[in-house]
Amino acid sequence: MTWHRPLAHELPQDTTPFACLIREAELLGVLAHGAVSPFGAALLHDDEDLLRTHARRLLPSAASKAHIGADLTAVVMGTPTSRLAALLDSLADREVHGTASVWRFGPSSLRRALDAGRTPAEIQADLSDAADGPLPQPLTYLIADTARKHGRLRLATTACAIHSDDTALLAEIAAHRKLSRLGLRTLAPTVLLCRTPLPTALDALRAEGYAPVAEAEDGAVRLEGAQQARATQLLPRPRQRPRRTAPAPGLALRLLSAPDHEPHPDPGHGIPFQTDTEEILACYAKALNLTDIRQLAHAIHEHEPITVEYLAVSGNRTIRTVSELELDPPLLSAYCHLREDQRVFTLSRIQAVMPV
């Protein structure tokens, strides 16, 4: 046996012959104290009735009833049946598991059952069948109170919402056959839920002749940048200056040579603006000095990002890094890296300009 069946012969901690086999038989209950048990004898003689009798003696019958108390607990002595355990697990939270098992009812556990589709009448009927007496009054009150609050708030999955004070217009959109692909659902006479993302819904409504606008997160109308074709070079590029011996960027040279006072557009009255863009910015961006104007004009011409200090209508000052600049006086259209979206800025509210 040591040679042919080493794993069945001995254990590392026990060198008795057939120690592994004996240990396994003891764990199964067919051997006890070195002798065949009644359970093992029935198994040895293939007597199913005797085997079932000994198994029933060793494993008492499962409890099918629970004692439900006024403290909102359910106590089961012994092993509960699978049906009783599944019922109490679905309606209460198990606190103790052993010789006696204890479950506790609460609003969250009952709400879990209501979320699964069970009704208060079904819950009370199932508990009445499983209880060894009448249901205590506190539990019936808890079931009724939890059911009364359940579902008073409802959440719907939606990608965007369409709302208007014109109820007839919303009813027309909801019944529009070509717009059915948007997944519209009437939530109220003035509100439609839409399962399609906002950009797609906007395009679909505009394609059918409607004129919707998008809202920002604060509820204000979101301004969209002009979509018409623009010239590649909106304004004349700065005049080329002779190359200097010392290598330096053109913008840096112009900023270093800028006077302390504001220039006048007429060369006869002072240093003129170097580009038309600078002159236009100076007319609208009154809060900027000449250095800021030249930096902003350079960013517009060279299609480079720039950082601006912006004064919002609410009075809050924010620092924005913007790119893809397009001048449309008195506005500046740009992509705002803070909001990650296209924005339109009023030139008069730009307080300062800084390099990125």
Task: Produce a short descriptive summary.
The chain is of the alpha+beta class and 356 residues long. Helix content is 35%, strand content 19%.
Tally of DSSP β-strands = 14
Q: What does the oligomeric state look like here?
A: single chain
Overall pLDDT score: 83
Radius of gyration: 41 Å
Enumerate how many helices there are, as a single number: 13
Low-pLDDT stretches are 227-248, 264-269
Spatial arrangement of strands, main beta sheet: 13-12-11-10-14
Task: Please provide a written account of the structure.
This protein has 356 residues and is α+β, with helices and mostly antiparallel strands. 35% of the residues lie in helices and 19% in strands. The protein is built from 13 helices and 14 strands. The protein has a five-stranded antiparallel β-sheet, with helices on one face. The protein has a four-stranded antiparallel β-sheet with strand order 3-4-6-5. The protein is elongated.
Characteristic terms for this protein:
single chain, 356 residues, alpha+beta, 5-stranded antiparallel beta sheet, 4-stranded antiparallel beta sheet, 13 helices, elongated
Write the topology of this structure.
Blueprint: H1 6-9, H2 19-28, E1 31-32, E2 35-36, H3 38-44, H4 48-58, E3 67-68, E4 73-77, H5 82-91, E5 93-96, E6 100-104, H6 107-115, H7 120-130, H8 137-149, E7 160-163, H9 167-175, E8 184-188, E9 191-194, H10 198-207, H11 250-256, H12 276-284, H13 290-302, E10 306-311, E11 317-328, E12 331-336, E13 341-346, E14 350-354
Antiparallel strand pairs: 1-2, 3-4, 4-6, 5-6, 7-9, 8-9, 10-11, 10-14, 11-12, 12-13
Helix pairs in contact: 3-4, 5-7, 6-8, 12-13
